[in-house]
Design brief:
With 137 residues, the chain is α+β, with helices and mostly antiparallel strands. It has three helices and nine strands, in the order βαββββααββββ. The strands form two sheets. A five-stranded antiparallel beta sheet has the order 1-6-7-8-9, with no helix packed on it. A four-stranded antiparallel beta sheet has the order 2-3-4-5.
């Protein structure tokens, strides 16, 4: 699989997530939203596009009910305050603690795209085919 050329916007977003830790992941059919240890949500779409926005703005832009949006905001605060001890039902814990993000690479074939998030302790691969996106263990 060949590394995909990043857009200027992707490069910009990635520069901002370097050094951050992933505390939780909220998955939607075509989007993964990474809750960072700073009050930002890093969203990655199935086409590889990315955004980085403060929790309130990012969660308000999601296609979810007001009840779910309120729960996501509460869980984000709880994960940052209490870490793994936080009781959450919307954010999934990453399969492993990768530590601080050091690098992000996108790879693509005609049928599949992968993103490899490298931390100072481990790595987290992400893959999607069409509109299906998910974390790999």
């Amino acid at each position: 699989m060949q590394a995909r050329q990043l857009t200027k916007h992707q490069e910009h977003v990635i520069k901002h997530v370097l050094g951050c830790r992933i505390l939780g992941v909220y998955a939607q059919s075509e989007h993964l939203h990474f809750l960072l240890d700073i009050p930002y949500l890093w969203s990655v779409d199935a086409d590889g596009s990315m955004t980085l926005a403060q929790d309130e703005e990012a969660i308000a832009s999601l296609d979810v009910s007001e009840t779910t949006a309120a729960a996501l905001l509460e869980e984000a605060a709880a994960l940052r305050e209490r870490g793994p001890a936080a009781d959450v039902s919307h954010f999934a814990r990453p399969p492993r603690d990768i530590g601080a993000i050091e690098d992000v690479t996108l790879y693509a074939t005609e049928t599949e795209t992968r993103m490899h998030i490298v931390g100072d302790a481990d790595a987290l691969p992400v893959a999607w085919q069409g509109a299906s996106i998910g974390l790999l263990d």
